[in-house]
Design brief:
flat, mainly alpha, 85% helix
């Protein structure tokens, strides 16, 4: 809520995006500082205990977290490197037109992630049960349904991409 209010105030006063990002990070820092202050009493008194701590499970969770973090960094490079290449070779003005076309693809990628996201808990439960047959079936059915939903939309976007970009950016 504070980030949205600060965005409204900052942008209506004509301040820059850098100022907004700084304010956002200040709110994030304050959020964690308040959480630390609230939990500090319990942490120093030793009231906070983890009776079911399992080192092997923790190692597996943190290795997955590291893997996901590295995947996120890789995605940033993969999906933003093309803007740098286009800007360096063709010029900065071409990046805008290129970004509009890339945004169409990003919308489909984001929608696909939103649709597939709820399947992660089910997949994790099947992995915990070591049920690879049902996990494979879930993957195949999910891929089929996603392809069935997205294939027509992608085909329409490809056919009308020129009109979409011209309507968006102008001739």
């Amino acid at each position: 809520i504070f980030t949205g209010i600060s965005a409204y105030i900052i942008f209506t006063r004509g301040l820059s995006i850098s100022f907004y990002l700084g304010a956002s990070y200040i709110f994030i820092f304050l959020k964690y500082a308040i959480a630390y202050a609230a939990c500090r009493k319990d942490l120093t008194n030793g009231k906070l205990i983890f009776p079911y701590f399992d080192k092997a499970v923790s190692r597996k969770i943190f290795s997955l977290s590291l893997y996901l973090f590295l995947c996120s960094l890789t995605n940033i490079v993969i999906f933003n490197l093309d803007n740098f290449v286009v800007g360096a070779i063709v010029g900065v003005s071409a990046v805008t037109l290129f970004s509009v076309a890339a945004n169409l693809q990003n919308v489909f990628r984001m929608a696909n992630s939103l649709i597939g996201g709820p399947l992660f808990p089910v997949s994790a439960e099947l992995e915990g049960q070591n049920d690879h047959i049902r996990q494979k079936a879930l993957l195949l059915k999910g891929t089929q349904y996603t392809a069935f939903v997205f294939a027509p939309m992608v085909i329409v976007a490809i056919i009308f991409s020129g009109r979409l970009i011209n309507s968006w950016m102008g001739p």
